[in-house]
Amino acid sequence: MTTPRITLAIGGEPVLVDRAVRRVSIAVRQADPTAQRTVIASDDEDAPHRLREAAAPNLFGDGGVVVIEGIDSADDALGRAIRDVVADLPENVYLVLTHPGGNKGKALLDDLRSAGAEQVDCQALKKGKATLEFLTREFSSYKRRATPDAVSTLYDAVGHDLGLLVAAVSQLSADVDAGPIDGDAVRSYFAGVADVSGFTIADAVWERRYAEALRTLRQAMLASDAARVGPSTVASLAIGLRTLVRVGGMPPGASESEVAKEAGVPPWKVKQLRRQWTRWSGDQRRLAASVVALADADGSMKGGVLEGSSLDTEQKLLALEILVAATASSAARD
């Protein structure tokens, strides 16, 4: 299948936007392992220059993927630069442009469509039927079939968070050998998680509530199959961390609606996320260490990164407790 030269990722669902960008990047790098990806924010005053530079032909014929984020915020200068590059796009350069949806920047969108851009729908999924259908397709992408009971049970247990749902589908597809994946298999992973969800644990961690983080984790272990709590908890922590970083990167004067749009959360959650960010903003090194710890834990919960490094159930529980305790305590102020 030919990789589109210009891709428009339209919508505000971060998981789908990230997937659209990643799909193009992977395809380009398969053809050219040296290809680089350049990410440009539309509200960067240097964006027009960076775009022209990234898309310019060079002596070595190097290509790459140029991602322009939030073209609804593109000013006239960037709009001209985008149109100029599209009109004479080098053969080995691929453009991915993201737009949250709506009519802002419609003229630029129309010009890109006229230039042959492939549009990818990244709108947030509606609750209920649309999300259930998405989950069924997600299982199919792993060449797995899930029963309607399995899909609905997963949705009920995890909730309407696409990032966590996608992670759960990946985990189930990898770990459940029997087919089709049924409701019992899902319940063995997520029973009790709806009562003490991974997000409850994650919120306690990122708000430096050490005792509550451990208490809710242990409740989750008792309420469900203890060996299955790990993937859900680690995924929730990772989603919380990504959201936290997005909030921390916003200008201090940004409105709640602007922050909500950037972080992909409802406006009512912004105050909570800003409060969490204050716990970390003064210690970026520990925040970076948490990223590494989560990456290691993700591998441990899924069977180990290296051959022979898989953990048994008790070791997984201990590793999970150590992760939650260390991360929550590192968030605490001295």
Report on this model:
The chain starts with 5 loop residues before the first strand and ends with a helix. The chain has two domains: 6-121, P-loop containing nucleotide triphosphate hydrolases (Rossmann fold), CATH 3.40.50; 129-330, Zinc Finger, Delta Prime, domain 3. The chain is of the alpha/beta class and 334 residues long. α3 links the parallel β3 and β4 (93-99). Strands 2-3-4-1-5 form a five-stranded parallel beta sheet, with helices on both faces. The protein is 57% helix and 8% strand. α9 runs antiparallel to α10. The mean pLDDT is 83.
Main attributes?
Zinc Finger, Delta Prime, domain 3, Rossmann fold, 2 domains, alpha/beta, 57% helix, 334 residues, five-stranded parallel sheet
Give a short synopsis of this structure.
Helix 2 runs parallel beside helix 3 (76-87), helix 5 crosses helix 6 (148-158) and helix 11 (229-248) packs antiparallel against helix 14 (284-301). The chain has 334 residues and is of the alpha/beta class. It has helices spanning 14-31, 47-55, 76-87, 106-114, 129-141, 148-158, 162-175, 183-190, 198-206, 210-223, 229-248, 256-263, 270-280, 284-301, 313-330, and strands spanning 6-10, 36-41, 64-69, 93-99, 118-121.
Please report the number of helical segments.
Answer: 15
* Count of structural domains: 2
Mean pLDDT: 83
The biggest beta sheet is recorded as: 5 strands, parallel
- Uncertain segments are none
CATH architecture descriptor name of the largest domain: Up-down Bundle
Sheet with the most strands: spatial strand order: 2-3-4-1-5
CATH class of the largest domain: Mainly Alpha
Structure classification: alpha/beta
Q: What is the percentage of strand-forming residues?
A: 5-15%
Q: In which range does the helix fraction lie?
A: 55-70%
CATH level-3 fold name of the largest domain:
Zinc Finger, Delta Prime, domain 3
Task: Give the oligomeric state of the chains in this entry, treating copies of one chain as homo and distinct chains as hetero.
Answer: single chain
Order of helices and strands: EHEHEHEHEHHHHHHHHHHH
Shape: globular
Distance between the termini: 55 Å
